[in-house]
Every structure is written in C-alpha cells, then in structure tokens.
Amino acid sequence: MDESSPQAAGPRTLRRGLRVLAALRDHGPEGLCVTDLARYTGIQRPTIYRLMAALLEAGLAHPVAGTKRYRANLAQDAAMPEPDPRLRLTLPALRRLAERTGDAVFLVVRDGDESVSLHREIGGYPVQILATYAGKRQPLGVGSGGMALLAALPDEVAHDIVARNAACLDEYGGMTAHEMLRLIENTRSRGYSVVGNHAVRGALGVGCALLDAHGSPVLAISVTAIIDRMPAQRQREIAAWIKAELARLGT
Question: Residue limits of the IclR-ED domain (predicted)?
Fold first, then answer.
C-alpha cells in the first residue's frame, strides 16, 4: 500500500503511536519529554504532541509528576485514574463552549509555579490549535488559561512566581518577565486574559478564572484559535461566554 494514500494514514498513525509508546516503555518510570521522544523515534514534535494527547486520553501514558516528562502505563491490571473532580464539574461547560465557538477549549489549573492542562475539547472549525493537551505543563501565565489564574493571585504571590519562572520564559516565543507582568495588569483591568504568539505561534487565547469564596483561583477555562479568528470584538464575546459558564459552575 502507498504510504501517502488515505488508506495508509490510519496504519501509519498507529505505527507512530506504537513507536512513541515503546520509547516510553523502554525508558521506564523516569519517562521522556517531547523533545527526547522526537529524538528517539524520529517523529516530528507536532506529531508527538498529537500522539501523546491520544495516549494520555487512553490512559496508556501518564505525566511524571513535577516534570515535563511522560511515562508508559502498560500494566494489565492498572486501574484507570479517577477523573479530576474539576474536570467532572466543567466538562459540560467545555463542550458547550467548543460547540458555540467552534474552537479548542481548555481546562487549566495551577500547580505551584506551573499551569497544567486537564482537558482539551475540540470545536468544529477546520483549523484547530491543538499543541496544548491534557497533562501538559508550562510556566504559569504563558497561556491564556494560566494567565487568568496568575492574574487572580495577590500581587506578591504573582510577582514571585514570575521571578522564579523568568529564566525559562524565553522558550515561549520570547516571553519576558517584564511582558508577563504587563499581561497581568492588562488581564486585571480587562477582566479576562488575552495571550497570543507565545506558547503557540499564530494562536491567540482568551481565558477566565473561577474564584472560590475567598477570591482564590480554582481553575480557568480558555478558548484558543488562530489569530484571524480573534479580533477584539470576538475576544470580548468569548470572554462573556466563558464567564457565563463559570457563573453556572459557581451556583
């Protein structure tokens, strides 16, 4: 069968997924990051991201806590992990937003100085921004969901997080600590975050945080699309839709 034919696409994807899974298996509990996976398998990083999203969703791989690495989960008697209660709470809202916007919708939470994506819901528009996936970690504030969480923290806490993350921010589209502090102020004055061209080139995200009774951020929901789909008016509309869904969660 011609490898470039549509009929070959399914088997080719399966073979690549198995190569990624085998690499994770061979490296044991310490796991591998996406860059290492690309080097060991010869598969390009964008494809690794897509394959990892499928493996994570299927429970065949898990993030290694506190790192950017992933490990295989191949034990036959391994129980599937319990869904995060924040995902159970928000999943209907995520699906409604994906249907309404047509774009990718993300559930993001804070873990120390990082944001963690818990879920990605894909919309119906033909071009989707999918580089972020369940289990992915990045410095808090790099993406629109993480920025909504960061901006909801007290000044001292937020500024300390930015300072601790400053050395690695340049990896995300040339982000700087100064620019992140500016984004925090913009998010607070606007009432929602708008972050573009940092974690993912050519993308722009809008995010809002859900706060608890003490004003602390619990989670954030963000919508990310190609920049052409995100003029200022649509950013405001999407923020309003996210806030309406978060208000339903809080009642």
Answer: 72-251
